[in-house]
Amino acid sequence: MTALLTGPGRAGADGRAGVRIGLDIGGTKIEGVALGPGGAVLARRRARSAEGVRAVVEAAAAVVDALTADLGTDLTDAPAGRPAAVGVGIPGLVDPAAGTVGDAVNLGFGPDRVPFGPALSARLGGVPVTVENDVNATALGARELLAPGADLALLSLGTGLAAGVVVGGALLRGARGAAGEVGHLALDPRGLPCPCGQRGCLETVASGAALRRAWPHGGEGRSAEHLFAAAGAGDPAAVAVRDAWAGAVALAVRTLALTCDPEHLVLGGGVAAVGEPLREAVAAALRAQAAGSRFLRGLAVDERLTLLPTGTPVAAVGAARLGERTGAP
C-alpha cells in the first residue's frame, strides 16, 4: 500500500485531537483521507477492497492504521493518539443510526443488515465510526469542495441511478431513508423491469447500465466514453443514443431541481468520467425540455449543472465530515 500524501504533511501530537478519517469503500478499492481540524487533507491512502464482512472490516481498518501512521501516531497508543472519528461511505442499504449495512452486493454483503460500524469501531479500539451510503457521503464531499454553505444535489450515474441531497448543511434522508432514490420513479408500466421490482423506472433508461445496454461497445466500463467519442465524431446512431440517454438523465436532474431546488446540481458516478461532453449533453437536453415552458426556463436548471471533480477523493472527504455533519460523536 502506497501513501499519497497531500496537505501540510505529518501532524504533531498537538494537531491530532481534531483529525478525522474518511473512507470511501467500493467494490474494487478503498480510498482513505485524514482531515485536519480546518478541513485540510493531511494524508491520503488507497488500497484494494475485499469481499465479505470480516474481510472488508479488516481492509478498512488497515487503511485507517496506515493513515494514522502517516500522521506519526499509532492506534495502539493512548486515546490521544487516535483520530477523533472515522466516517465511512459504503454502497448498499445503510442505517446510519445503527451503523448497519446490507445488500452491498459488490462487497459480498447479503440482504441481512450487519453491524459494520460497530465492528470497525471495535477493531479500531473504540474510535467512533459513522457509516453512510456512498452516494450521500459523496454529496457531502461535493458540497465541501464545490459549494460550502450551499444546498446541493448530486446525481450518481453508475450502474444504478440515485441522488444525495444536502439541504441546510444536513443530508436529506427521509422517513425511510429513501430520499434521493429518483432512479425508482416508475415512468412507464410497460417499460423494462427494474431490480427494485417495478417496471419502467427512470433507472432503466438513465443509468450507466441503461447506457451500456443501449450502446454495448467499448468493453466493460467504457461504453460511455466510446458512445460520446462516436457521437462527437458525428456517428448518427451514437448521436441518437446519446441524446435519448441524456434526455432521461435531464429528467432525473429536473426532478431533483423541482423537489428540493438546490443551488448546485452535480453529475457524479462512473459515467461522469466522460467529463464536459456529458455535462453539455445533459444541459442541452434540459434546455430542450424547458423550451416550451416559461416556468422551467425561469428555473435555469441547465445553468446550475456541474461535474464532480475527477482525481479528488470527494467521497472520502465527505465521509470524514460525517460525524460532525450528522451529530455523531
Brief sketch in words of this structure:
By secondary structure, this protein is α/β, with parallel strands linked by helices. It is 36% helix and 19% strand. The strands form 3 sheets. Strands 1-4-3-2-5-8 form a 6-stranded mixed sheet.
Helix and strand arrangement:
Elements lengths: L2 E2 L15 E6 L3 E7 L5 E8 L4 H18 L14 E6 L2 E3 L4 E3 L13 H8 L5 E5 H13 L5 E6 L3 E7 L2 E2 L31 H4 L1 H7 L8 H10 L3 H25 L3 E5 L7 H15 L3 H6 L5 E3 L6 H7 L1 H5 L3
Parallel strand pairs: 2-5, 5-8, 9-12, 12-13
Antiparallel strand pairs: 1-4, 2-3, 3-4, 6-7, 9-10, 10-11
What does this structure look like?
The protein has helices at residues 53-70, 116-123, 134-146, 203-206, 208-214, 223-232, 236-260, 276-290, 294-299, 314-320, 322-326; strands spanning 3-4, 20-25, 29-35, 41-48, 85-90, 93-95, 100-102, 129-133, 152-157, 161-167, 170-171, 264-268, 305-307. The radius of gyration is 20 Å and the shape is globular. The protein has a six-stranded mixed sheet. The longest helix is centred in the last third of the chain and has 25 residues, at 236-260. Mean pLDDT is 88; it is low at 1-16, 74-80 and 325-329. It has two domains: 3-127, Nucleotidyltransferase, domain 5 (2-Layer Sandwich), CATH 3.30.420; 148-307, ATPase, nucleotide binding domain (Nucleotidyltransferase, domain 5, 2-Layer Sandwich), CATH 3.30.420. By secondary structure, the protein is of the alpha/beta class. Strand 10 (161-167) and strand 11 (170-171) form a beta hairpin. Helix 6 packs across helix 7 (236-260).
